[in-house]
Structure to design on (226 residues):
């Protein structure tokens, strides 16, 4: 069965520290998508990134970077030089047909 | 501006009442979804619709109903049969194209049963 595991329930760091959020997935599909979403305190889910299963290139967007490794079924998310505005719950998700399989989320707290 | 709107932002319901949550999108997306989120928890799928006049149950459909009469609209009714409806409800629409497939979310509706 498809599954997404975000083992880190909550992470707390001091501003300007780097932080990595882990995501491990299970799937039998050969073609799939992986996603990261951010949920700030306001509640709306904000799409951050989508990665195709056949594209293992790492992605960098400003202070955000993503490391996709099919060999370990992981799609980890790193925030460099964290800021207070990065405080949110972050969800990893895996595509399954017309649906998404969601991880439980990681609550990230950035202390000033 | 293109996007997904949900209304109301906050909704209070008395026990035994049915309430309807609105979800509208002007992104021309074919598929739409309803999720429920309880405090400190992840998302659980209630219903989804891939095309007009068609929808499928998700993992927790009991006590909920939907309709999809227009491509832009996917309202969710929380019926009195839903025993614990207090939660945050999120609507999403999905864009599916060549080498891309992404769900985009509305701002959500917080439902409280009094």
């Amino acid at each position: 069965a498809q599954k997404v595991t975000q083992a880190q329930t909550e992470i707390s760091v001091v501003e300007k520290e780097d932080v990595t959020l882990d995501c491990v997935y299970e799937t039998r599909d050969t073609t799939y998508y992986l996603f990261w979403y951010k949920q700030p305190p306001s509640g709306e889910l904000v799409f951050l990134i989508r990665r195709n299963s056949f594209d293992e290139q790492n992605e960098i967007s400003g202070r955000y970077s993503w490391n996709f490794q099919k060999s370990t079924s992981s799609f980890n998310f790193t925030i460099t030089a964290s800021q207070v505005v990065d405080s949110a719950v972050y969800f990893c998700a895996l595509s399954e047909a017309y649906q998404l399989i969601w991880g439980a989320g990681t609550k990230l707290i950035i202390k000033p | 501006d293109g996007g997904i709107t949900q209304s109301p932002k906050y909704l209070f319901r008395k026990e035994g009442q049915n309430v309807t949550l609105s979800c509208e999108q002007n992104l021309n997306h074919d598929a739409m979804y309803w999720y429920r989120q309880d405090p400190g928890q992840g998302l659980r799928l209630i219903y989804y619709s891939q095309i007009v006049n068609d929808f499928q149950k998700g993992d927790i459909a009991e006590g909920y109903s939907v309709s999809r009469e227009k491509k832009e609209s996917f309202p969710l009714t929380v019926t009195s049969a839903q025993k614990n409806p207090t939660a945050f409800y999120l609507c999403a629409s999905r864009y599916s194209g060549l080498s891309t497939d992404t769900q985009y979310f509305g701002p959500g509706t917080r439902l409280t049963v009094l």
User: Anything to note?
Assistant: The interface with chain B takes residues 33, 35, 37, 42-47, 50, 52, 91, 95, 98-100, 102-105 of chain A (CB under 8 Å). The longest strand of chain A covers residues 88-96. The two ends of chain A are 41 Å apart (CA to CA).
